[in-house]
C-alpha cells in the first residue's frame, strides 16, 4: 500500500494505491483513514465525483467546510477501492485556514497512513503469517450495513504532510488601516464620478 499527495497549495489530491497477489476470488478493499483537523474533504465534491467518476468515499460525519482548523475536529474517511489492478483512488483533500500567530510562518499538517481492510465472500481461511484482526465496517459505499473485514497489520507506509501558511497577527492593525483607507478613497472616487455625470 502507498499514499502520496499531489498538486500544490491548499487544494490537493490524496492518492492511494494498493497491490496484492492475484487471487482465485474477488477481494474487496477498504481504506479506513483518520484525518487531522488541519484538512477536510468536501462531501459535495465527493458526491459529484461519485456520479462522474465512480469515486467511492464515505465520511463519518458532515463537515463544516468554512471552519478554520482550530475550531474543527479530526474525521474519518472510508475509501472503497475497486478493480482493475492496481487498486487506486485520488481523493481531493483541502487545507484549512489556521489561526494567526504573532510571527506568521507555516503550519505542517501531518497525515498518517490509513488502515487497510480486506473482505472476500469466498475466503474461509487466512494465511497465519499475516498479522491481522477482524473488524466491522460498512459493506459498501451504498450498503452501510456492517460486514466483517480483515484488517491487515504491519504495513510500513510513511506519513505525508502539507505545509500551510499562517497569518501574522502583528500585521492586523496596518492591514486594517490600509484596507479602510483604500475603501474610503474608492468610495469617494465613485461618489465624485456619480455626482459629476449625474447618474442616480
UniProtKB/TrEMBL annotation:
One of its GO terms (cellular component) is endoplasmic reticulum membrane. Keywords: Endoplasmic reticulum, Glycoprotein, GPI-anchor biosynthesis, Membrane, Transmembrane, Transmembrane helix. Coiled coil: none annotated. It holds the Pfam family PIG-X. It is found in: Endoplasmic reticulum membrane. The chain crosses the membrane at residues 171-195. It is a single-pass membrane protein. Stabilizing subunit of the glycosylphosphatidylinositol-mannosyltransferase I complex which catalyzes the transfer of the first mannose, via an alpha-1,4 bond from a dolichol-phosphate-mannose (Dol-P-Man) to the glucosaminyl acyl phosphatidylinositol (GlcN-(acyl)PI) intermediate to generate alpha-D-Man-(1->4)-alpha-D-GlcN-(1->6)-(1-radyl,2-acyl-sn-glycero-3-phospho)-2-acyl-inositol and participates in the sixth step of the glycosylphosphatidylinositol-anchor biosynthesis. Probably acts by stabilizing the mannosyltransferase PIGM. This is Phosphatidylinositol-glycan biosynthesis class X protein.
Amino acid at each position: 500500500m502507498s499514499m502520496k499527495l499531489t498538486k500544490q497549495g491548499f487544494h490537493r489530491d490524496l492518492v492511494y494505491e494498493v497491490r496484492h497477489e492475484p487471487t482465485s476470488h474477488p477481494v474487496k478493499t477498504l481504506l479506513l483513514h483518520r484525518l487531522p483537523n488541519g484538512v477536510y474533504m468536501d462531501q459535495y465534491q465527493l458526491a459529484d465525483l461519485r456520479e462522474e467518476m465512480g469515486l467511492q468515499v464515505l465520511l463519518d460525519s458532515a463537515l463544516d467546510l468554512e471552519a478554520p482548523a482550530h475550531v474543527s475536529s479530526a474525521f474519518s474517511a472510508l475509501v472503497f477501492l475497486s478493480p482493475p489492478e492496481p487498486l487506486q483512488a485520488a481523493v481531493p483533500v483541502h487545507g484549512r485556514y489556521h489561526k494567526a500567530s504573532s510571527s506568521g510562518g507555516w503550519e505542517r499538517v501531518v497525515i498518517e497512513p490509513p488502515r487497510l481492510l480486506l473482505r472476500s465472500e469466498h475466503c474461509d481461511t487466512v494465511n497465519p503469517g499475516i498479522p491481522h484482526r477482524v473488524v466491522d465496517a460498512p459493506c459498501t459505499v451504498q450498503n452501510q450495513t456492517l460486514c466483517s473485514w480483515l484488517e491487515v497489520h504491519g504495513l510500513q507506509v510513511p506519513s505525508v504532510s502539507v505545509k500551510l501558511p499562517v497569518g501574522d497577527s502583528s500585521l492586523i492593525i496596518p492591514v486594517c488601516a490600509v484596507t479602510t483607507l483604500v475603501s474610503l478613497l474608492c468610495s469617494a472616487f465613485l461618489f465624485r464620478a456619480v455626482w459629476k455625470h449625474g447618474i442616480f
